[in-house]
């Protein structure tokens, strides 16, 4: 009887949960990749966008009331959600709603932080009358069963639950770190500390906040109203709201390993902040491995997205002079590899690689067209780039840095604007109208 009651309470709590996927930020560390769209809208894994991961986690977890507050260059993001996430049934109170920034407070300000983004939408939240608020970042790649986290929140009687991922202690200095006692109650919250606190019983690892929180709705309202009236606050959950609760409310850390969705029992709990060019390149190219850390072929936990109708990928020409082929690569729909060689690379939708060209260890974003006789290595080729014939990238770092953006790890980021700025003779072909 007790198990039935627990299941009933969790089912009721899931129906009473409103998920807010915060998608207003630019993600400036991705450099030119976010010149025209917010980080959550950046393409990932061949056919998806980053925001598809938290949205899919919600659906697969049984949470079907979702809102997406937007702000920075949101057109691409809004169009994607309208096209790919409009299958909910409003008559049974299911939805994915877009909440554009509307300067709804007396200050008539844009969102000033993650907490302010929620505060400015309090009236809309009250209209939905949820019992619990699940706060999610729209710019991380991971698979997580939020129902397990919500069950933990209910079982512990927490006021706030913070999802935490284990990281090596030496890497924890780059995260917001959570200090816990033996029961995983939060006793400290430190932003990028020089000496991170370790997990009890494991001096080699620390808890890093994932930016995922469950709040009891009434408490969250009071906290946001108080924070809005605090002039010294940066109006951020990690910097202001959570630290202010220490010693006053019951804060629990939820171990990501307890709710991570894995393809095998011993698989790594996968979570990536693809917030830098190097991290984005590495996470995408990991998918071409024989056994990638992120299993997108797991039918029990599908990642949903907008399904553009495209023809199958095509490989043409097979002779000694030119052979259309891709090895150890992921090639999406609509691609044509015409007499070119692609190795250890990921081609997004509608990419064309023309004859006598070589593409290695490279991520090519949707709609790019790589001209003949090119050699592109260790690079990211941006949306709809028209790469000119004979361009060589990845063999002379100094030359690459003069023309494009080269990261510390030697990955070259190429965008259409950079190509258009090349000297005469290296100029890019014009981009046809979308």
UniProtKB/TrEMBL annotation:
Metabolic or biological pathway: Glycan biosynthesis; glycogen biosynthesis
Reactions it catalyzes: alpha-D-glucose 1-phosphate + ATP + H(+) = ADP-alpha-D-glucose + diphosphate
PROSITE patterns per record: ADP_GLC_PYROPHOSPH_1, ADP_GLC_PYROPHOSPH_2, ADP_GLC_PYROPHOSPH_3
Keywords of this entry: ATP-binding, Carbohydrate metabolism, Glycogen biosynthesis, Glycogen metabolism, Nucleotide-binding, Nucleotidyltransferase, Transferase
Any one GO BP annotation for this protein: glycogen biosynthetic process
Record carries keyword Transferase: yes
GO molecular function, one term: glucose-1-phosphate adenylyltransferase activity
Domain Glucose-1-phosphate adenylyltransferase/Bifunctional protein GlmU-like C-terminal hexapeptide, first and last residues per copy: 311-414
Site residues (Could play a key role in the communication between the regulatory and the substrate sites), renumbered to this chain: 71, 110
Entry binding sites for alpha-D-glucose 1-phosphate: 111, 176, 191-192, 209
EC number per UniProt: 2.7.7.27
Domain Nucleotidyl transferase: 19-287
Keyword Metal-binding appears in the UniProt entry: no
A family per Pfam: Hexapep_GlmU
NCBIfam families on file: glgC, PRK00725.1, PRK00844.1
Function: Involved in the biosynthesis of ADP-glucose, a building block required for the elongation reactions to produce glycogen. Catalyzes the reaction between ATP and alpha-D-glucose 1-phosphate (G1P) to produce pyrophosphate and ADP-Glc.
Entry similarity comment: Belongs to the bacterial/plant glucose-1-phosphate adenylyltransferase family.
Subunit structure: Homotetramer.
Name of the protein in question: Glucose-1-phosphate adenylyltransferase
Species, as recorded: Caenispirillum bisanense
């Amino acid at each position: 009887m007790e198990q039935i009651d627990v299941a009933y309470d969790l089912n009721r709590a899931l129906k009473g949960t409103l998920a807010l996927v915060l998608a207003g930020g630019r993600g400036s560390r991705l450099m030119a990749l976010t010149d025209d769209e917010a980080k959550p809208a950046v393409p990932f894994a061949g056919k998806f966008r980053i925001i598809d991961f938290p949205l899919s986690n919600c659906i697969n977890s049984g949470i079907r009331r979702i809102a997406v507050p937007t702000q920075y260059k949101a057109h691409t993001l809004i169009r994607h959600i309208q096209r790919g996430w409009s299958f909910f049934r409003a008559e049974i109170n299911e939805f994915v709603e877009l909440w554009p920034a509307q300067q709804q407070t007396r200050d008539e300000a844009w969102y000033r932080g993650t907490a302010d983004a929620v505060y400015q939408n309090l009236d809309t939240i009250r209209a939905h009358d949820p019992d619990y608020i699940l706060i999610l970042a729209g710019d991380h790649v991971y698979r997580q069963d939020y129902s397990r986290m919500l069950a933990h929140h209910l079982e512990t009687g927490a006021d706030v639950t913070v999802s935490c991922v284990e990281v090596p202690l030496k890497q924890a200095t780059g995260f917001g770190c959570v200090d816990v006692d033996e029961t995983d109650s939060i006793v400290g919250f430190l932003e990028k500390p020089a000496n991170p606190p370790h997990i009890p019983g494991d001096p080699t690892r620390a808890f890093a906040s994932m930016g995922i929180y469950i709040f009891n709705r009434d408490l969250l309202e009071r906290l946001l109203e108080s924070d809005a009236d605090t002039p010294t606050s940066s109006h951020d959950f990690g910097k202001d709201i959570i630290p202010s609760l220490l010693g006053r409310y019951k804060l629990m850390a939820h171990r990501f390993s307890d709710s991570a969705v894995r393809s095998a029992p011993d698989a790594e709990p996968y979570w990536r902040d693809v917030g830098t060019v190097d991290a984005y390149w590495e996470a995408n190219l990991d998918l071409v491995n024989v056994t990638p850390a992120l299993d997108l072929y797991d039918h029990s936990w599908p990642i949903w997205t907008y399904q553009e109708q495209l023809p199958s990928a095509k490989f043409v020409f097979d002779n000694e002079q030119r052979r259309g082929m891709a090895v150890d690569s992921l090639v999406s729909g609509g691609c044509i590899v015409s007499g070119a060689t692609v190795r250890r690379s990921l081609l997004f939708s509608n990419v064309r690689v023309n004859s006598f060209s070589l593409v290695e260890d490279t991520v090519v974003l949707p709609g790019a067209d790589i001209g003949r006789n090119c050699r592109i290595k260790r690079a990211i080729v941006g949306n709809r780039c028209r790469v000119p014939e004979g361009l060589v990238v990845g063999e002379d770092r100094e030359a690459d840095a003069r023309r494009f953006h080269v990261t510390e790890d030697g990955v070259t980021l190429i965008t259409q604007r950079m190509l258009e700025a090349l000297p005469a003779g290296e100029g890019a072909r014009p981009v046809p109208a979308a």
